[in-house]
Structures are given as C-alpha cells and as structure tokens.
Amino acid sequence: MSNYKYAILGTGALGGFYGAKLQKGGFDVHFLLRRDYEHVTKNGLIIDSKDGDFTLPKVKAYCDVAKMPKCDVVIVAFKTTQNDLLPQMLPSVVKDDGVVLVLQNGLGIEEEVANIVGSNRVMGGLCFLCSNKVGLGHIRHLDYGQITLGEYAVDYYPVGITQRMQQIQKDFETAGVRIELAEDLLLGRWQKLVWNIPYNGLSVILDATTDELMADVHTRELVEQLMYEVALGAKSGGRIISVGFIEMMLDYTVKMKPYRTSMKIDYDEHRPLEVEAIVGNPLRKAQAAGVNLPLIGCLYRQLKFLDGRNRWK
Amino acid sequence: MSNYKYAILGTGALGGFYGAKLQKGGFDVHFLLRRDYEHVTKNGLIIDSKDGDFTLPKVKAYCDVAKMPKCDVVIVAFKTTQNDLLPQMLPSVVKDDGVVLVLQNGLGIEEEVANIVGSNRVMGGLCFLCSNKVGLGHIRHLDYGQITLGEYAVDYYPVGITQRMQQIQKDFETAGVRIELAEDLLLGRWQKLVWNIPYNGLSVILDATTDELMADVHTRELVEQLMYEVALGAKSGGRIISVGFIEMMLDYTVKMKPYRTSMKIDYDEHRPLEVEAIVGNPLRKAQAAGVNLPLIGCLYRQLKFLDGRNRWK
Q: What phi and psi, each to the nearest 5 degrees, are found at residue B208?
C-alpha cells in the first residue's frame, strides 16, 4: 500500500465512487466538487453499493483546485465536455513526479493532457462501471467497477507494464476495485469504442435501449457494421481488433439486461453529449491516417445536430 | 383532346387532385376509393386550390376494382406501401392497348408493374405537388402540380418521346396540369431521389424540418454527402447527375419555406413509411451493380427500425 495522495476531479457517479472506495481503503483522497461542495463538506459521501453500502461522514472537499494539495495521482473523473478546464486545473494539483489518470470515455484525451503536464505524466483508464448519482453526495453503484489501466506515451506508443501502474493497481485492489493492466492503452481505447460508438450513438438518434437495437434485424446489422468500422479505425492506428472480439461484444450485449446508455441519459437530461471524445476524435484520427469511416461520420453529424438542438430546449 | 378513359387508383391528396382536374377538364374519370367511398358517392369531391377552388358534385366512384370499366390510362396514385395490391388490381382495369401510369415516389416500381401488365404498357410520372387531404373527399392543393412523364421500357432503356406520352400531355394540359416529357425516366427518378432520400430520411430520423436540416452545419454536410451518394447510385445505373444539379437542389431547399416532408407526415400519422421504394430500392439497385452506398444504407436501417416501432404505437 502506497502513501500516494489521490485527487478526484469531478465527484460524480464515477469519481465519487472510486474516490470513496479509496478513502475507505485508507488512502488520502482530495475531492473537487462543484454543485455538491457545501453539502458534502457538511455531510460527507453516501455510497449505496451492490458490494456493500457505506458512508464517509468526513471527506476532504474542495470547490477550488488552487486550494488542493499537490497529489501523486490526479484522477480526471468529470465528463469530456468539461475538458476545456484541464489546462487551468491540472498544473497546480499534480506533483512533479505525479501522474494524471484520465478515467474518461473516448479517444485522444491523453494527448490533450500530455500537452499540459508532459507525456510522461499521463495514464488512461477504461472504466466498466454502472453507477448513478442519486442525490447530493449520494451515489448508487449498480454493477461492475473494474478499470483497465494503461500508460500513455507519445503517439500512444505501447510501453507495457510499468512500476507505477502496478502500484496504482495495488492501491485500488486494496480499496476493493479490480484493475486490469493493459500493455497498450490505445488498443484498449479502440476496443471500448467498439461498444460505445454504436450503442451510445444509436440509442440517442433512435431513442432506443440496447435490447431494442439488438432485437430489430436492421439496427442489429447497423450496430455490427459500425463495430467493423471502429475496427477499421483501430487498424488505421496500427491496432488490430479481431472478428472474435466484435462477436463477443454483440453476444454480450444481447445477454445484457436492457440498458439505457450514458449518452442517452445525458441526452434525456439535456446535458452536453460526449460526441467529440467518443465519435468525433476516432473519426478524425482515422481520417488523418487516410481512412474514411462513413457510417461513423453519419452518426457524428446526426449526433451533433441533436446535441445542438437538445441543449436549447 | 383524347377520348381516353382514365382510372384513378387511390383518390387521396394526389390521385384525387389530378383525377378531379381531369374530370373538370372534360375527361371520363373513374375513381377507386376505400374509406371515402360512401361519402364521395353521395357528395362528390371538393378541391381547394391555389389555382381556383372547385367542386365535383358527381363522380364515378368505386370501392371494388372489379366493377370499374377497362381504362386507357390507369393512374396508380396510392402510396407504394400498398403496392402488394397491384397484381390483383391492374389486370382487370387496364385495356389491352392501355397504359398504367405510376405516379409514385421511389425506384423500381415500373418494373413491378411491367411484370404484371407487360413492359410496353407502363409509364412513370414524377409529381411535384404540394397537396393534403383535409377531410372525406376534400383535398387542399397548396402549391406546384407539374408532372414529369416518361415511358418505361425493359431495364429502363430510354425510349425518348412517344406519341402516347404526347397525348397524355395534351389531356393533362387541357385539364390545367403542366406536363414535362422526359426522354429518360430512370434519370428523372434518380434526380428526384437526390432530394427525397436525404430530406425524407433525415426529417424522420432527426424529427426535423428542411430548414432545420439546412441551418445546422453538420446536417447540411450530411445532406450533401447523401446527395452525392444518390448520384453514385445513379451512375451505377448509367445515369449522370451533375454537381450543378446537386447544388441547385441544395440552393432550392435553402430558399424554400420550412417544409415537413411527406415521409415525416406519414411518420407523425403513424402510417407505414415508403422506405423500400424511396431508400431500399435505390440501395439494392446500386448494390446489384456492385456499388456500395454506406450512408444511404445507414439511413435505410435507421428508418426501418423507426417505421417498425412507429406502427405499433
């Protein structure tokens, strides 16, 4: 168990859950909050979890990043639609030998962070977590929770397993969170997009849950075509996604309980959609490598239209 | 002026309008109706038109095609979603030397009709008409009305201008309907799809009017990409649609009043959508010629999903 200081930027369904688990596991955790700041300062955090409910009556809460101590591991846990705040936030909160761990969906975020703190101070994590914020400082953890962790290096060069990764793995596992180490972060990110692009995109465009998309023969086929386009995008970045992986994702989704995707929840709540991170960046990455992804391009334009209109309503 | 007997199969916004114009112009017109049959038998047809309102207190109305006389020109005026009725309807109502005139949207319909009545007895017409049925036997003509008329021959071989086309043109123009003669019906059909596929499709999928689609930079681009895919489809059938034509369609739509497409009206009314005729057939025609149209394929699958769900609601 390390004596790492952890910062959680964005204490919502995801950051609040992992941060609370770490604090409960005995780590020194510093939470950045916005709307919930006063409430959490007074009342702490409540976690309802399928692995056991718990409360943290006292947490170190901040509403201003400048007041936070410098930390060893700075976890970026808000949505990518807030990432324009990162240049202003990160420099003051990450130690010189610390690391920024990006727990966000989509592609290309680590590059943005590397431009701010340097490319040897960035890691990425892919969360398989099903949780919601149900009230001020109150989070409900429904299912899963594991994180796939990878180091970032310039141009997503795969750097294998580092000591720092292993240390963070140990800390999280001490706190009860399973961590898988990825030798190639970019491959992991593209793999996650195999699911995220078709289901997040189509759920918003067609007002549909995952089971509806899989039950209709036409959308079932469109989902599959989109998955193969994601694989084509991955290939343009030198990463191979197998037919078997795609078949596994389809099979897994058919067997899953009916699911409303996170992008659909954002849409229904009239929040900005993570279109750029999840759809736009992969599209542009492939395009820059000379590969056209027409179906993903179609989804992108439909989502941009819907997102733009939705936020005015 | 001919002594042609005209049959109107489907006395709705389109068939009712053209049939009434022909009868008012002095022609012998026989109307097939379904829901409006009793009302129209008693009360005739009422046409509110920007070119002058008129009523026809008495029309020859039928609810059974078997009771209709054999006609020289049989106009198919219902939606393509009813075309499964054609094999049963057409043989008894068209004279041996008569012609079936298909006034429907989409592609490939004339081939279906040719399989029923023979390929030398089919013509197609592209209607530029803005009209609605506002009540039983009551039609409101809002704008336009001209028809582009073309002969069908096997494989849409262009047959130029025939005497029969010129006779029908004369009759319609006597009745006050402008007719343009097309030497190449298939080119005309693909040209109409340049507008119909993007606007009909996206208006349903994104719940949008034409002006909304043109005002947003992303859907504006998607519309244009779809138009170029339609041109690619046309090319797979040996027909050339120029860049200038596409630019004209975009420009024309920007200048048009905000418009709810016919497919969107059908969707809002929970009626079956003409997805197969307008989107599915062009897609399959191009595919059969070895040309993939990915964006149109994406629209097709999204529309099939929405259409299927919409009819149960």
A: -135, 150
Residue B49 in contact with residue B16, Cβ under 8 Å? no
| Burial of A154 (C-beta count, 10 Å sphere; 0-12/13-18/19+) | exposed
Q: At B2, is the pLDDT very low, low, confident or very high (cuts 50, 70, 90)? A: confident
CB contact under 8 A, B305 and A205: no
CB-based contact, A118 to chain B, within 8 Å: no
A5-183 and A187-310 agree in CATH topology: no
Q: How far is CA B304 from the centre of its chain?
A: 20
Backbone dihedral region of A6: left (phi > 0), alpha (psi from -120 to 50 degrees) or beta?
beta
In this prediction the pTM is 0.94
Name the token pair of B65: 């095609």
Q: How far is CA B82 from the centre of its chain?
A: 13
Regarding beta strands B28-32 and B45-49, do their DSSP bridges make them parallel or antiparallel, or are they unpaired?
A: unpaired
pLDDT confidence of B279, banded at 50, 70, 90? Answer: very high
Say if B209 is an interface residue toward chain A (CB within 8 Å): no
Domain boundaries, chain B: 5-183, 187-310
Amino acid code (one letter) for B255: K
Query: Which residue of chain A is at minimal alpha-carbon distance from B308?
Result: A216
Report the 3 state secondary structure along B162-190.
CHHHHHHHHHHHHCCCCEEECCCHHHHHH
In whole angstroms, give the CA distance from residue B221 to residue B253: 14
pLDDT, residue A63, reads: 97
| pLDDT at position B119 | 95
A221 touches chain B (CB under 8 A): yes
Task: List the one residue out of B204, B182, B216, B172 whose CA is nearest residue B2.
Answer: B172
Topology, domain B187-310: N-(1-d-carboxylethyl)-l-norvaline Dehydrogenase; domain 2 (1.10.1040)
Residue B256 has pLDDT above 90, yes or no: no
Q: Is B302 on the interface with A (CB under 8 A)?
A: yes
- Strand pairing of B138-151 and B45-49? parallel
- Closest C-alpha among B63, B59, B64, B70 to residue B7: B70
Q: Nearest-CA neighbor of B48 among B141, B152, B131, B124?
A: B141
**ipTM metric:** 0.92
Catalytic residues of A: 192
**Rounded CA Rg of chain A:** 19
Cross-chain Cβ contact A298/B301 below 8 Å: no
Residue A119, pLDDT > 70, answer yes
Distance between B310 CA and the closest CA of chain A, angstroms = 11
Q: Which residue has the tokens 């949207």?
A: B105
pLDDT at A313: 64
Domain B5-183 = CATH 1.25.40.10: no
* DSSP-assigned letter for residue B115: H
